[in-house]
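Researcher: I'm preparing a figure for a lab meeting and need a structural model of a single chain. I don't have an experimental structure, so a prediction will have to do for now. The sequence is pasted below. Please return the structure as tokens so I can convert it later.
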Amino acid sequence: METQAEIPEFEPTAAGAAVGLVLVLASIALFPLGRALALRLFPRRNVIFARWGFFHVGLAIFTYFTLTILGGMLLRAAGVSLSGGIAPVVFGALLQVATVALCFVFARRLDPEGIAALGFRSGGNVRALGVGVLAYGFGIPAIMGAMLLSAWSWKALGVEAPPQEVLKLVLELEGAERVVFVALAVALIPLCEELFFRGFLQPLLVQNLGDRGGLFATAFLFAAVHGNLVAFLPIFALALLLGMVMMRTQRIGAAWLVHALHNGLTIALVLGSDWARRMLDA
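Model: Understood. Here is the structure written out token by token.
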């Protein structure tokens, strides 16, 4: 397997940025068509009234960081290293599961609909998944274009952004560890992130900031927590798409499917494409 040191550096160019701009504009131009098709599948949108508040969101975040600190201390005391390999990914996934479990508790106790308020609704799920696939098909050019634009823009500004270590990790892992990584990155982690951001946080922000304000605020926070300058713009574009899917369908499965498809496609490109691998060093 090609080692990280052997991967040549990807050099963002103005030509690549121009292609990215065309891709973004193409997605924008196709947006009315995609929206019309989505409306045919889901002509009405149920408005969710979040029974929880910012206090509960803050408590969930506090719980996450508290468990991060305490769990890290316990693992270090047990001699378990979180500096490399699959261990930090598994640890992070468990932290997300614990945080989402608290969101489940809040939904069950505060909302008459229980966990249905988080997007676990009966009926219409197949149509919702169809909306998700459709939205991703129309939105992926914008996501790819945003990636090219972002890489060139930061390079032009002379800003050295940190590499995407999580994606580089999949190149280093082998055998069972790689299988576990892919399963977590494609299935479990996207589900936890969608439950917190689109199921728990977005309804509250939409309720207070309106549809567009809540959508953009959630997408901004989602991109920001990933902590990578180059990746911020494409992640923000993906988050907008996920938010729109969730707002239209109110089915967490639809948002999860889009997120899982994107992560799966990204990992497949990293493993199978030298070009995609070089972009990790942009």
